[in-house]
Amino acid sequence: MYTRVKQCIGRGTIKKLYARSCSTDPSHVEPKPFEDIPGPRSLPVIGTLYKYLPFIGEYSFVKLHMNGLSKLKRYGHLVREEIVPGESVVWVFRPEDIAKIFKAEAGLHPKRRSHLALLKYRTDRSNIYNNGGLISTNGTEWWRLRREFQKVLSKPQNVIDYLEDTDLVVQEFVRLCSHEKADDFLSLFSRLFLELTCLVVFDIKMQSLSEKERHQNSRSSRLINAAFTTNSAILKLDNGPMLWRFFETPLYKKMRRAQNYMEEVALEMVTQKNQDTSICGKQSLLEQYLKNETLDIKDIVGMACDMLLAGVDTTTYTTAFALYHLAKNTDAQEKLRSEATALLKDRTSPITPETLKNATFTKAVLKETFRMNPISVGIGRILQTDVVLSGYRVPRGTVVVTQNQVICRLPEYFDKPNSFIPERWLRDSNNIMDQTTREKSVNPYMVLPFGHGPRSCIARRFAEQNLQVLLLRICRNLQFTWCGEPLGSLSFLINVPDGPIKINFKNLHV
Ligand code: HEM
Hints:
By secondary structure, this protein is α+β, with helices and mostly antiparallel strands.
């Protein structure tokens, strides 16, 4: 019937009829044009890059959350910017708009515009990789990888199977902290998370916490440096004129060398496992990938590199911020300790799935840490359909970046937004807490530390399990105070603490 009508009156007539019906509908408001979205003035050739110049520019590429706050104050909840002329980026501050972005990608393969130089590096090396890997590939090729890897990586039982080994590594780490006097604990945290990542990725114990591996030229140290070098180069390589597309710039070269090393280790580990025919006990994740006929060695090497790249710094910095807040807020530290002592009768009682299920305050501490210090300013997407945000039409193909880090510190959404109050995330009204600090209802698109939807963090369960075990063990066995300056963050793609992690740990003999 509809086809017949369509044939009779033609497309143009339908459009006119639709437009007329809209204009007579009093509730219909035509979206405002994309070009009218307010934002900083972009100049020919240099775009808004002049605003990011050191010393004289009002913005900085390493202070994305501060830029976000000042753009919100000046231009409002939706801001359009052409950092490079002709390439719009839209910064999105309203949780209702953030929800629309994620809802619009339902049923599609969500796309990100990031890690472009890494994509080039890997596509140039087709003898080692099939594509840019999970992080930098978009479209159906991304989904081919994601579908197969997440079957294994996100399966709850697979994550639980690593709990015992994780706990043993964390116990060793806590023993080290108890007598370590470091000017900056960050590198020790990185060693812990490299160890835990390699356990899952390569099924090996790197011994990253050992005396030998703590040497600056050891394999662990070089892997940690390679991940940091790559992560901190990506944002700069992704923005600006991207000259590395035409010739090897010094920063691209730095990233290439870091990736060369990471790939060398990944290749060695994966090949070794592939040749190892011994069958023992339960299958590791790597063994499950190697048995999967829809994946080949190149896919697995790419995935191993992605995991090293995304697994170490993220959890390291989250730990730094969580311990900073707990050290500064002794009430919260004591509450976590009470929970840990109730769940773990003595210092070496094993952490079980049941322990984690009941660790509600520990989980609230992590959520509050993510509210105040998320690992990224927000989530980036390339829109795949036209969307109306804050009354403006934003066309398909536009890069949008949600500003969760900025809005999570606004008083319109959170009481005392700059205070660390884990209790705001506890639902149980019997809990000892001040009713005024319990959030009434928080929009679910406000705190999104792991992203959202099918493209969200593939290792979320592992990361959360590792962090929960760590907080429980540290608070069960150690007491700690902060000896450094107030801690803020710098945006190096992911948010890095802007000062040393100075903590004084004291053993608790209970
Ligand atoms: C505190 C810890 C972590 C945080 C906060 C975090 C956060 C994120 C975020 C925000 C994304 C992008 C999500 C999106 O675009 O919607 C992501 C993606 C990813 N994460 Fe994590 N992550 C963490 C730990 C890890 C760990 C431990 C690993 C691996 C061992 C990992 C591997 C990945 C990978 C491979 C992706 C790309 C997924 C894809 O594009 O399909 N992450 N993570």
